[in-house]
Specification:
The protein folds into two domains: 3-209, Spore Coat Polysaccharide Biosynthesis Protein SpsA, Chain A (Alpha-Beta Complex); 236-332. The chain is 49% helix and 17% strand. It contains twelve helices and nine strands.
Length: 333
């Protein structure tokens, strides 16, 4: 196929990036988008800056993207973008991610199936030199390897979707500061539509580089996960990416603390053994899981997952506790 024919065969696509204080990564993100092996005349690139206080906008202005500044959370920014994009196909890429040159071509091929309304690529680690980031990447890659041809939901980190379908189900739920992509995917797939997964389309994500930043990220997830499960009860059973065992880990930690506190009463002191037994089971499971991932990716650094697993479970439990208190106060008020 000659270049003119290839250009005519390529559908026009709008790519949306929402950003907040993303000066460290937005440049490389946009560079990868404008470096896609795709007719640039068929691409509309939109950056929704959520009122960054750093040099995010200045970095973005170095590229021919349309830039809008709006004081919105991420799902509201996506809904705002839906109103201003000019094309039916919309690509979503996180501001802390970059994609390979053939990313878009590999995703588009799935739309030959009329039942497919969205498709995502795989997630690799951008900042592999950092051991925490590399270990987080191994965890994500390990979980994504459980995906088959289709997914119940997928992250907006790298995603191509039909605008009309998102609008049909009411857009993004702006009440979720995180987990809005899980909610969106669930609402779409329960209507019978398909979200395809293309593992050969590579997206590189800049993972958290410190334990503290990872905890804060997972704390945000924890706050919204409980609300997500209130909205969609069946999601608590787990799916391909977040399975049932991940969901019950915060509850097991809660049980450990609960039995320990009850054991402070002299009559109930034997419950300390129960607390120790549950905690021991968690430790063994985390060591086994980290070792399994370490062996799969041939990198002993992945044993840091033992710490990351604990951090995630504690963050989710803390987030759920905060959400519970807020819901109680709201209802009481």
């Amino acid at each position: 196929m000659n270049q003119t024919a290839a250009k005519n065969a390529s559908p026009k696509i709008s790519i949306v990036i929402t950003a907040l204080n993303s000066e460290a990564t937005i440049g490389e993100c946009l560079k990868s988008i404008f470096g896609l092996d795709y007719p640039q005349t068929h691409l509309e690139v939109i950056v929704i800056d959520r009122c960054s206080t750093d040099a995010t906008v200045e970095k973005a202005q170095q590229y021919p993207a349309k830039i809008f500044r709006e004081p919105l959370n991420a799902p509201a920014a996506y809904n705002y973008a839906l109103k201003i994009v000019n094309n039916e196909l919309i690509g979503f890429i996180d501001a802390d991610a970059k994609v390979e040159k053939e990313w878009l071509n590999k995703l588009i091929s799935h739309f030959t199936d009329p039942e497919v309304v969205g498709v995502s690529g795989s997630i690799e680690t951008w900042n592999t030199e950092n051991p925490w980031a590399r270990s987080i990447g191994y965890d994500i890659a390990n979980r994504y390897q459980r995906l088959g041809k289709y997914a119940t939901r997928i992250a907006t980190m790298n995603l191509l979707f039909r605008k009309s379908i998102i609008e049909e189900i009411g857009g993004f739920d702006e009440d979720f500061a995180s987990q809005y992509d899980t909610d969106l995917g669930y609402r779409i797939t329960t209507k019978g539509y398909k979200i395809a997964y293309e593992p050969n389309a590579k997206c590189y994500h800049f993972n958290r580089q410190t334990l503290n930043s990872y905890f804060r990220q997972q704390l945000q997830y924890g706050k919204n996960t409980l609300r997500l499960y209130f909205k969609h009860h069946s999601l608590a059973k787990g799916d391909e990416i977040t399975d049932f065992y991940m969901n019950i880990q915060p509850l097991l930690l809660l049980a450990t603390a609960f039995f320990f506190l009850l054991g402070l009463v002299p009559l109930l002191r034997p419950l300390w053994y129960v607390s120790a037994l549950v905690l021991g089971a968690i430790v063994i499971y985390y060591i086994y899981s980290a070792a399994k991932v370490s062996a799969k990716f041939h990198d002993q650094t992945a044993m840091l997952l033992f710490i990351l697993y604990f951090t995630r479970a504690i963050a989710w439990l803390t987030g759920a506790f905060i959400t519970t208190i807020r819901l109680y106060v709201t209802r009481k008020g």
